[in-house]
Amino acid sequence: MTTFFAKIDGKPSSVPLRLAAALFLAAGLMAVDAASAGELPRLWNWSYSGSGIAAAGTLSTTQNANAAGYYEILAISGQRNGDLIIGLQPTGTAIPGNEPFAVDNWIKPDGQLTGEGFGYQTQSGSYANVFFADWDSPPGNKEFMTIPVQSYSQETTVSFHLQAVPEPATWALLSLGGLALLAAGRRRPNQN
Hints:
Elements: E1 6-8, E2 11-13, H1 15-36, E3 42-50, E4 53-61, E5 71-80, E6 83-88, E7 106-107, E8 118-122, E9 127-133, E10 140-147, E11 152-164, H2 168-185
Antiparallel strand pairs: 1-2, 3-4, 3-11, 4-5, 5-6, 5-7, 6-8, 8-9, 9-10, 10-11
Helix pairs in contact: 1-2
């Protein structure tokens, strides 16, 4: 009977199969990365909090960063204090009540925001602009929030966090590679 296991010191060994599984996994990950480059948006989990503020959700960005290392935000979802976020503020425009400070919707993978930041609207009609205030002492992230129908606005220091969401294809390949390694680790009983 043909076997995929080699013999080392007269005992079955799964080393060749394990090596093949690892090489398969590495090649698959590189192929998925090359195939998806520039095609699908990159997803990120984001959150920020401050005095009386808790906001979190998902950002979709361009697949590739610009020369400065920033990704352009294309879409946003999530909640701010339980209020559903319904849309990203268009690039080059200011949230109502924060004119003339237009958002640029750029972000770095480490969570670094620009001085213009990104903005969004919530279901209840409020707007928020999250940005990096390099002019503040010490410099840090801020949220400027407005409720135009109430002529209300506030600016608050926030702690901002960003984490990349692994792509489904990556999870699938990692799972397949793990299963292949698990199968390789099982030894067949001696059939003598």
